[in-house]
Amino acid sequence: MPKFLRIGVHQSNVSGYTSKAWCVRRVGSAVFLKWGAVEVQGAGDGRRVYWTRLPQEKTVRCRTTQRAQDYAKAAIARRRNHRYEPLAGPIALRRRSAELSAELKQALATILIVDIVGSTAKAAKLGDARWTKVMGHYYAAVRKELKSTRGKEVVTTGDGVLATFKAPASGVRCATAIQKAVRTLGLDIRVGLHAGEYSVSGGEMVGLAFHIGTRVAAKARAGEVLVSSAVRDLMAQSEIRFRDHGMHQLKGVPARWRLYRLED
């Protein structure tokens, strides 16, 4: 069964990140698909990949063997075109402790989303080899700042990073530190922060707060750090200053939200 791992971080980099994997298998005139979130541990030949929860599965019945071959070939090509790398080893289902697989647990955090602006054009200009090196330095810089500000990486998405913080000030400090760190790489990033509740189920974080944070980041331009009113209100007594960025409709999110821009 051909397997593919989303390249959030190249395999030669530090382990312990989350990503997405696909499996494609053809049997006669049927194609079996399996996909879901995975956790990557180790690097190089010692790398291990685990499903973070039961993967989703789908069976496509193509009626003829030739149609199934064409479908599988196209499915594999799509994975390769969307920054997936072939994965030779197995994907195991990690057994989690009773505490992690227990009922939903509520938590409150400040959510940070970092995204590279114009990454596709930049990758095309640099070429695969140079872009891979740049991305390696990029993720190393982001992880260094997350560690120094006690942020927790949740997931990487191609050229983006989602992390959580216990305090909003820590998230803001991390955002500005990342901006400075990646300037030497010739990258333009945008950052969004939101504070809200999320749920933890089986070790996976879910909730509307993550979607809001992603939409806030999408409203930012290159070099900007935007925060939601929830973050700004929590930092009302802080020396960090924000400028009103107006009311915005966030795609897929109820009501309009007032956003604020971090002042330099």
TrEMBL record:
The keyword Secreted does not apply. InterPro entries: A/G_cyclase, Adenylyl/Guanylyl_Cyclase_3/4, Nucleotide_cyclase. GO terms for molecular function: lyase activity. Residues 110-217 form the Guanylate cyclase domain. The keyword Lyase applies. Keywords: Lyase. This is Adenylate/guanylate cyclase domain-containing protein.
